[in-house]
Specification:
single chain, about 500 residues, Rossmann fold, 9-stranded mixed sheet, two-stranded antiparallel sheet, 20 helices, about 40% helix, globular
């Protein structure tokens, strides 16, 4: 293994062509890119190798440089791994949100093996957008479930041609790749900032490579005991977020006409659920929407983020109007959204992300296990339960994990950041991460449901101040902190 950690990094320009917008953004902030060689199978370091793409933006205040801060914004896969966030991406997180952090650290991110821009080794099974969406959302009855089983079998079969590499996309191998990058950068320790899957990755790294992390922030973490089934128990939280949105919609009935009370808006939504359960096909403009399409948009809607309501609700109203038998006329933007969602164009990055999940943890191969689970929770979770408890491509995956998942339990210092109403990675899982890392402290944003709390476009000064103080000064809070929306910056002193 020594040759991998001692490899010379060949830094180069980040643009790969005139169409490479992320590359241009990287170069605009004077970032450099490189490829790191790692073993495909760490049990056979003399065997096949693959390339992992990285980007680095050097600290602007080199005289006060604190070291390397590795970023991972979740996924895994697609464009979520962090390279575009080093650049600033669509919205800069560190450079814009905390200039002091950006000035004191070299910001480094990788695209995990076989994902995003990892050159020459991107895994793509060719899952069409329409097929992928239809497979993901299931109704309460046997007919819908059987259709979902067939669609998920098809997605898994499309990946069979990659059997030689599928077992090696695990989080454990991504963590090993991180450590090769650390060594190649010449760092004895790295600091780390990860959101969502990135938080889970950071915890796995802390377990596998003790003593190699300096300051560690894990934001919106899934439960490390159950990843990747991280949101199976999210139905209750999601219903609470739906109710919060319904109260908002009722206050704006003059604009959306969904009901003048929370109860009326929820009744409109329940009628929508029943239409979807009837397996009906509806029309929105030129598009025919099947039952799974009807389920997928409201389940994927951002009910946990009030700042998104004005953007989300007009599109949701289209679906609700169609379910109520009203004419649903999409805007040009909605028409484009529906065309992309219902297209047979390849859903880039989706198969690699799911491949990583399937390599992490063995799941039941018996479809009836999932159907029984759906039925057992149907009374309490009539809308959100079935898709969260459904079969997945992993149920029919052509390979099995080659090693068990990491049991995270150590006393590494870390700052765990979360929110009480996160509908993507529920707060119960974030608390489980806090308990697993016995040397950690937790910063909780109370009564807010956003997924991604620190610097995630939200302006939560209490959280941001606590994390900045830790990253910049090394001050891990003496006790856990609870923040609220009205708590000003600089007052995150615990309570």
């Amino acid at each position: 293994m020594a040759r991998f950690g001692q490899q010379k990094i060949d830094w180069h320009r980040c643009t790969s062509g005139a169409e490479d917008e992320i590359g241009k953004q990287l170069e605009a902030v004077k970032a450099k890119c490189a490829e790191i060689t790692v073993p495909l199978d760490y049990r056979k370091p003399d065997g096949r190798t693959v390339k992992v793409s990285i980007a680095r933006r050097e600290a602007t205040d080199q005289g006060r440089r604190l070291g390397t801060l590795m970023l991972n914004t979740g996924g895994p896969g697609e464009s979520k791994s962090g390279i575009n966030w080093v650049a600033g991406g669509v919205e800069p997180i560190i450079p814009k949100g905390s200039p002091k952090v950006a000035s004191r650290y070299d910001l480094v991110a990788m695209d995990p093996r076989f994902m995003a821009s990892s050159r020459g080794s991107v895994l793509e099974c060719g899952w069409p957008s329409r097929t992928k969406n239809d497979a993901a959302w299931v109704g309460p009855d046997r007919r819908s479930f059987k259709r979902s089983v067939a669609l998920n079998k098809d997605l898994a079969a499309r990946c069979a041609k990659h059997q030689k590499v599928l077992p090696h996309l695990s989080t454990r191998n991504i963590a090993r790749d991180m450590d090769v990058i650390r060594a190649a950068l010449g760092e004895k320790k790295i600091s780390y900032l990860g959101w969502s899957f990135g938080a889970y990755l950071g915890s796995v790294y802390s377990q596998m490579f003790p003593g190699r992390l300096d300051r560690t922030v894990l934001d919106s973490s899934p439960d490390p005991r159950t990843w990747p089934a991280f949101n199976k128990e999210a139905g209750t939280v999601q219903h609470a977020a739906l109710r919060k949105w319904a109260a908002w919609a009722a206050r704006h009935d003059d604009r959306y006409h969904l009901g003048t009370t929370t109860g009326q808006v929820l009744a409109t939504f329940d009628h929508y659920r029943k239409v979807a359960d009837q397996d009906r096909t509806l029309r929105i403009g030129r598009h025919r929407i099947n039952a799974n399409n009807l389920r997928s948009f409201p389940i994927g809607a951002d009910f946990d983020d009030p700042t998104s309501y004005t953007q989300m609700t007009p599109t949701l109203k289209l679906f609700l109007d169609a379910a109520r038998g009203k004419e649903a006329k999409p805007t040009p933007q909605d028409d484009q959204f529906l065309a992309e969602t219902l297209s047979h164009k390849v859903a880039e990055g989706e198969s690699a992300m799911v491949a990583s999940w399937c390599a992490d943890r063995a799941v039941s191969r018996d479809p009836e296990t999932y159907y029984r689970d759906i039925q057992a929770h149907l009374a309490d979770e009539p809308f959100y339960g079935p898709p969260k408890r459904n079969v997945s491509p992993c149920t029919f995956w052509p390979t099995s994990p080659v090693e068990p998942p990491t049991k995270v339990h150590n006393n590494a210092q870390a700052l765990i950041v979360g929110s009480t109403q996160d509908t993507t990675t529920p707060y119960s899982g974030q608390l489980a991460m806090h308990r697993a890392l016995t040397g950690s402290r937790m910063v909780t944003q109370k009564d807010d449901g956003e997924h991604g709390v620190y610097l995630w476009f939200q302006g939560l000064p209490c959280v941001d101040a606590a994390v900045d103080r830790y990253l910049l000064d090394g001050d891990l809070p003496a006790k856990d902190i609870t923040c609220t929306r009205d708590k000003p910056a600089g007052t995150a002193d615990g309570n």
